[in-house]
Amino acid sequence: MNTKKIKVALLGVGTVGTGVYKLIQRRADVMVRTIGAQMEVSKILVHNLNKQREGIDASLLTDNWQEIVNDPEIQIVVEVMGGIEPARTMILEALHAGKHVVTANKDLLAAHGKELLDAAEEKHCDLLFEAAVAGGIPIIRPLKQCLAGNEIDEVIGIVNGTTNYILTKMFEENMSFEEALAKATELGYAEADPTADVEGLDAGRKVAIMASIAFHSRVVFDDVHTEGITKITSDDIAYAKEFDSVIKLLGVAHNTEGGIEVGVYPMLLNKEHPLASVRDSFNAVFVHGDAVDDAMFYGRGAGELPTASAVMGDIIDVARNIEYGCNGRISCTCYRETPIKKFDEIENKFFLRMQVKNQPGVLASIATVFGNHGVSIARVVQKHIKGDQAELVIVTDKVREDYLKNALEQLRDSENIFEISSVIREY
Fold it and tell me: Which of 2, 200, 212, 334 is 20 to 30 A distant from 159 in Cα terms?
């Protein structure tokens, strides 16, 4: 039996790092048949050596990065610390030392992916990051390999489990946003500071990574227009049900003749769309290609073992490449320089809910303002009349973002409008 060992170092042993450690131990007896060699965790970098870590061999722990980067026997470095620094510096040093890197760091890749991939290519090293997007769902490898024969023009997805759980509870159990967030926090789906999730920042980083790979052109986090779900109310949910739709926080990326459109925001989604049935903390990514047509990838978007599953898949891939001497065969796939379309120029349909004066001529005056700004009305619903106030719901046809924004600014100054309560895009 082949007794060759491939040595791995873990940078961080939090939730994901612990899951990776467990999987390597769990699969130890089949590694020779899986990759042609044994796999061994030889070092684990931690910040505090004195902290108790149940199930982790304490003799592997170190707080000295140099012990890892300067060890010629360590061939694979697995970064699961998160954050920009010191992860960026350590990954670059590992690559320059000829070590292969697996990372789950979406924040880093969405901001500095080109720098890291260029360093990997220069040294003919692997840099794999399946776990950076959608946890345990395979999507990076399918985009780079399985769907490589396609011209992909659309990638949309539910890529944040916290917000999907919150919206599911609001939709199915009539919870308020605050109640659903409290429940998500209680169950561990939401962090103590949930800003990155509920304001769309986490999803924005993931969409930047997917768009870069799908469209072969660099998209960074700063290119992504992000909006969250904090303004979604029970009234919006009720109208979505009436319209046979759900509301989901979607990451949306389109490759168009005018450039790449990319954003994260809540959208009304018809119940017939496959993404509409994705509930609770599950994630899903929907892809359209010219050859494959529609494809959807669905599963657990986070968690110790689901995310560790994606990391482990990358580790095994790197180990197989080491055994066959073919590392670095798939490097950066961004060979185009497609412009990023200005968000104001993107066209969307909109669901608008506003409180207006309950008197003749108000709807006509609103329609005039919309008409003057190039906004076409597709549907009008009037309900909930209270004295001199009525609630008006308007659904528009596709319209440029800036046209609608200018129209709404004028309407907010109108004496006929008490409040514009909701502005939600419709898929």
Answer: 334
